[in-house]
């Protein structure tokens, strides 16, 4: 068990060593690897990709759930994986498969301090909202924004699964001292869930832009690269707390980084407020549409 009073830098190095030394840290799932390989070939068609993804029916169900999400914004209902591939395109399907594969690979255990369903709901809402915001703002990497939104808090799940003693210490510290979870993470582990998320992105050889945006999703102003993606995910994440829909207890007292006004060209604080309010009904419809 890590002593919370150790020097933060010592804790940081110890946690990084523990993280890199976890023997059963999942490797990239078969479906994710095969989809990536298939999409490297110019001869791959929608039916070929559909047959591959259909080997994992749980993946098919989740992709269709995402595609039919009100926040995702497709104009018509998608009922088959082949049609999803055609209407979403190969790049978007690849992003969805990557994100869902990572969520499944690092799935945490249920306990009294951790509601796995709420975590999945929060991740899905944030991802869908991030893509919708990206589309509305004309940000061309909306598929990556979805992936980043789905994976932005994956580090929390890793703490709960692989650093369980520290996880319990973090929860106790938050309850006893009324501090934010993100500050408790650093006090106990020396690193935050954002840093762990970035580490996982690097381990699976995913684009560094995703890891960078995940690292700064609480403070996009400090991000040097991919500021827009970090700002979009930050705004989507904030909206879940603001609307109290798909929110996560780990994000209580979430502070909106007003630097996103300049990063996303949102004019001024009044325009940002009206922009945020315009999404409330979409969030409500999204929540009501989710059945699991």
Number of strands: 0
Helical content class: 55-70%
What is the name of the CATH superfamily of the largest domain?
Hypothetical protein af1432
Largest sheet: none
Instruction: Look up the CATH topology of the largest domain.
Output: Hypothetical protein af1432
What Rg do the Cα atoms give? 19 Å
Count the domains: 2
Tell me what you see in this structure.
The protein has 292 residues and is mainly alpha-helical. The protein contains 17 helices and no strands. Helix 8 crosses helix 14. The radius of gyration is 19 Å and the shape is globular. 46% of the residues are buried. Residues 1-5 have low confidence and may be disordered.
What's the layout of helices and strands?
Elements: H1 8-20, H2 30-39, H3 46-53, H4 57-67, H5 81-88, H6 90-105, H7 116-137, H8 142-151, H9 154-162, H10 164-177, H11 181-189, H12 193-203, H13 208-215, H14 227-243, H15 260-263, H16 269-277, H17 280-289
Helix pairs in contact: 1-11, 2-6, 3-5, 4-6, 5-6, 6-8, 7-8, 7-14, 8-13, 8-14, 9-10, 9-12, 10-11, 12-13, 13-14
Give a quick precis of the structure.
With 292 residues, the chain is mostly helical.
Features:
292 residues, mainly alpha, Hypothetical protein af1432, 2 domains, 17 helices, globular, disordered N terminus
């Amino acid at each position: 068990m890590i002593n919370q009073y150790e020097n933060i830098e010592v804790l940081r190095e110890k946690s990084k060593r523990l993280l890199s030394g976890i023997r059963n840290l999942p490797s990239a799932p078969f479906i994710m690897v095969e989809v990536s390989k298939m999409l490297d070939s110019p001869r791959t068609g929608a039916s070929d990709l559909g047959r591959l993804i259909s080997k994992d029916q749980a993946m098919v169900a989740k992709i269709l759930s995402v595609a039919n999400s009100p926040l995702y914004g497709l104009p018509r209902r998608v009922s088959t994986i082949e049609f999803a591939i055609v209407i979403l395109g190969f790049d978007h399907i690849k992003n969805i498969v990557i994100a869902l594969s990572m969520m499944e690979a690092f799935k945490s255990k249920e306990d009294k301090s951790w509601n796995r369903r709420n975590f999945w709901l929060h991740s899905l809402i944030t991802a869908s909202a991030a893509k919708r915001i990206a589309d509305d703002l004309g940000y061309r990497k909306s598929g990556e924004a979805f992936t980043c939104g789905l994976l932005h808090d994956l580090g929390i799940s890793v703490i709960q699964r692989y650093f369980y003693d520290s996880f319990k210490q973090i929860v106790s510290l938050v309850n006893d001292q009324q501090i934010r979870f993100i500050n408790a993470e650093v006090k106990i582990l020396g690193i935050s869930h954002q840093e762990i998320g970035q580490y996982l992105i690097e381990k699976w050889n995913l684009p560094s832009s995703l890891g960078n945006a995940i690292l700064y999703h609480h403070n996009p102003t400090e991000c040097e690269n991919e500021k827009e993606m970090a700002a979009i995910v930050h705004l989507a994440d904030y909206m879940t707390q603001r609307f109290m829909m798909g929110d996560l207890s780990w994000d209580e007292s979430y502070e909106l980084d007003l630097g996103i006004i300049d990063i996303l060209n949102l004019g001024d604080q009044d325009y940002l407020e009206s922009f945020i309010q315009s999404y409330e009904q979409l969030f409500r419809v999204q929540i009501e549409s989710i059945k699991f």
